[in-house]
Write a structure and sequence with these properties.
Blueprint: H1 10-14, H2 22-39, H3 54-60, H4 65-78, H5 82-98, H6 106-117
Helix pairs in contact: 2-5, 3-5, 4-6, 5-6
């Protein structure tokens, strides 16, 4: 996974606006881990989305037709493998868990693709 970190603008540095507190982020992560523990209860070998095998990914990480079209476009433009497809779906499921969503939404999938695409040429054009 690649994450682009852009420089912080000076005006943002001197701004008095409060950003999101670390404790709030921590609580979302704890809740996402709880969702995953619940999802994989009864399977002592699995605790997190990253541990899913390809069959589980297809069963648990369902996406709607718009999501299928988006990931198809990304796969074609970026030349991604089946393994990359599974990884994108796992990350999408984790993003959805962090946001408390029962389903993978288009924006979750787009974010996961973006993380994957940072080491590739532009694909959205």
């Amino acid at each position: 996974m690649h994450v682009e970190v852009t420089p912080v603008e000076f005006d943002d540095l001197i701004s008095m606006a409060d950003g999101e507190k670390s404790e709030a982020i921590r609580m979302r992560v704890i809740q996402a881990r709880a969702f995953q523990s619940q999802r994989f209860r009864g399977n002592d070998a699995l605790h997190y989305n990253a541990q899913m095998n390809p069959n589980m990914v297809r069963r648990i990480c369902k996406i709607d037709p718009a999501g299928q079209a988006l990931i198809k476009k990304a796969m074609e433009r970026l030349g991604l493998s089946a393994r990359a497809y599974d990884r994108i779906l796992k990350v999408s499921r984790t993003i959805a868990d962090i946001e408390g969503s029962e389903t993978i939404q288009l924006e979750h999938l787009a974010e996961a693709i973006h993380y994957r695409s940072l080491d590739r040429d532009s694909w959205s054009g």
